Amino acid sequence: MGVAHENFPAMTTRRDAVVAWGRKNSLWPLPFGTACCAIEFMGAVSSVFDISRFGAELVRFSPRQSDLLLVAGTVTFKQAPILRQIWEQMCEPKWVISMGVCASAGGFYNNYCTVQGIDQVIPVDVYISGCPPRPEAILDAVMKLQDKIDRPGAHPGPQFKVPEPKFNY
Amino acid sequence: MDHPTLLEKLNALLPGKVLGSTDRFGSLEVAVDRKALAEVVGTLRNDQDLAFDMLIDLVSIDLSLYPGWTGDRFAVNVLLKSLPKNHRLQLKATAPEDDPSFPSLAGLYANADWLEREAWDQMGLKFTGHPNLKRILNHHEFVGHPLRKDYPITRRQWLSANESLMDEMDVRLKTKGYR
Fold it and tell me: Is ipTM > 0.85 here?
């Protein structure tokens, strides 16, 4: 991250590197849990798998206080404006993890009521496969996101599939 | 009460209302005219010997693709149970496509309110006399009724704004004396 000096207790670095280091190690997730993936997320948070090893243990239930939106579960068309509103209420910088196949692509709900992937509603940074994903997959996604925050040029930007759907609150 | 006795009792209690009956899979199914559905169910509920005090389910059926069926397009199955007498009964009524309406059971059973709203939302059956017949599962901007056989299952419809639900809240506030 920086260059340490031999006889001087300090090191030089870039300001954005320090800011990114702080951000990536203190992600505050907001679990947008709509289905069984949210139960799996509880397993990832609690002590056996322990997401706090990656600094993301402070789960907030207010979009104003969190910077990582973790969408865990099926999103219906009735729920889509709510998801969009919560994402818009979060302060910049913010990141989105799409957890599980339902949130990423609709899963096996290929029907009239399910959004076929939340990237039709909000931009997504990291996708997790699985139904539901193992806690290790969630930790892997958090590490991937940390790397993305650290080296923004090395990863693709947030994915957003369609022109923005029109919402009128 | 076993099924032959039950059917005998029904014929005595409601002369001319029982149009037909089948006893299969351990369940007695009785066909009634849809215009008389609420009257029949009310009689079954209030009778001392029958005492059907519980509405188990209200099922809507689209028979348009049913093999060998030439009758009306829509049907409603009303599943009743008596807790004190421990017997069950299925009532079946059909309605044609141009007038899919049934009398509402919401005045007889409290849970019929939401069951009929679901049947309206998913199948497009109208229940005359229902206090608040609006969509319950799909959003309010949804066009069509998705469980009908002619609805394409992957036709998706975006919702632009959330429903306020204040029309339901106002009723509850009034009953609690806040409004």
Answer: no
